[in-house]
UniProtKB/TrEMBL annotation:
Pfam families in the cross-refs: Glyco_hydro_17
Protein name (record): Glycoside hydrolase family 17
Top-level taxonomy: Eukaryota, Viridiplantae, Streptophyta, Embryophyta, Tracheophyta
GO biological process, one term: carbohydrate metabolic process
Family per record: Belongs to the glycosyl hydrolase 17 family.
Cross-referenced InterPro entries: GH, Glyco_hydro_17, Glyco_hydro_17_plant
């Protein structure tokens, strides 16, 4: 073999190893499994669909024992939600009662090694504000219970927040947390910092576009612009990155710039409103998966992959709100993909 052939062999091997390393360390892409609908496929059918598509992490929104038992032994990791309405009960309990709740509602039905996150409530600070005083007490009670069980490093606690907890989000460098919410958000950030837990954020460029199409272009929301918008010298070519970095900037201003972000919901509807279409849903989610799998990160955190949960596994025909709320499903009720999305894209 000639010197030049050795050189090319070395290069091909080197790049193959780099690719394998990036695949091994790529941030996960999970999927939300909402069940606010009738006529949905059975849980067993859904799990077979999840496994056959190489999806290794799922977010569920409550502690339904039938769902947990169905996932038991599948090697699929779960983010489990604590419903908003039961927070007062857990907030007023003790470490012992929190231990009992975890055991009865989660660990009796599924092995602890399948639980990755527990999300306390969902979008409480802006959409369900009556439960705001209970969020941190519940998190502390559950943390003490997990610590007692030796699980506080394995299972991380947080509370999924709407991205709109950030004010002045454009440009990202000017972002701050809503001053009316700082009393709740800053103590949460302190807990997340102290326990090396992530801030959970639901990110929907679709909503930003539909709420203000005059100033937010469809191309910018869909990762389709080639002309970056610069902020403090950093180039932004899409609203997803700008939203992530707005949250990072807001955390930095509070002294918590090192906290990891997990995007606990993001997606694009296939119908039901302006810009909602199968083609746009594919473009958006395809770009999100590529970004995650290639550990692209954001302009403020380049090369740091952001874990993402795509919304949603199926359409949920009983959801409240605008018509598009019922059309985020990646799969049809027959198990056929609504669009040809791969969960294992690289490059």
């Amino acid at each position: 073999m000639s010197l030049m052939e050795y050189y090319h062999l070395f290069l091909s091997t080197f790049y193959a190893l780099i690719l394998l390393y990036s695949l091994a360390d790529a941030a996960p892409v999970g999927v939300c499994y909402g069940q606010v609908g009738n006529g949905l496929p059975t849980i067993d059918y859904a799990i077979n669909l999840i496994k056959s598509n190489g999806i290794s992490r799922i977010r569920i929104f409550d502690v339904n024992p039938d769902v947990l038992q169905a996932f038991s032994g599948t090697n699929i990791e779960l983010m489990v939600g604590v419903p908003n309405e039961i927070l007062p009960l857990l907030a007023n309990g003790t470490t012992y009662s929190s231990l009992q709740w975890l055991q009865t509602n989660i660990f009796d039905h599924i092995a602890v090694n399948q639980i990755r996150y527990i999300g306390v409530g969902n979008e409480i600070f802006l959409k369900d504000t009556t439960y705001t005083p209970y969020v941190l007490p519940v998190i502390h009670n559950l943390y003490e219970a997990l610590y007692t069980l030796g699980l506080s490093e394995k299972i991380k606690l947080s509370s999924p927040c709407a991205a709109s907890i950030v004010s002045h989000s454009y440009p990202p460098s000017l972002a701050i947390f809503d001053p009316n919410l700082r009393y709740a958000i800053v103590p949460l950030l302190q807990f997340l910092h102290d326990t090396s837990s992530p801030l959970m954020v639901n990110v929907y460029p679709f909503f930003s576009y539909t709420n203000d199409p005059e100033h937010v272009s469809l191309e910018y929301a869909l990762f389709k612009t080639n002309d970056p918008v610069y902020d403090c010298g950093l180039p932004y070519t899409n609203l997803f990155d700008a939203t992530i970095d707005a949250v990072v900037s807001a955390m930095e201003k509070e002294g918590f710039g090192g906290i990891e972000i997990v995007v606990t919901e993001t997606g694009w509807p296939t119908s039901g409103g302006i810009g909602a279409s199968v083609d746009n849903a594919l473009v958006y989610n395809d770009n999100v998966v590529r970004k995650v799998k290639n550990n692209v990160g954001s302009p403020k955190r380049p090369g740091t992959g952001v874990e993402v949960f795509l919304f949603d596994l199926f359409d949920e025909n009983e959801k409240d709100g605008e018509e598009f709320e019922r059309h985020f499903g990646i799969f049809g009720l027959d198990g056929v993909k609504a669009y040809d999305l791969s969960f294992n894209l690289v490059n």
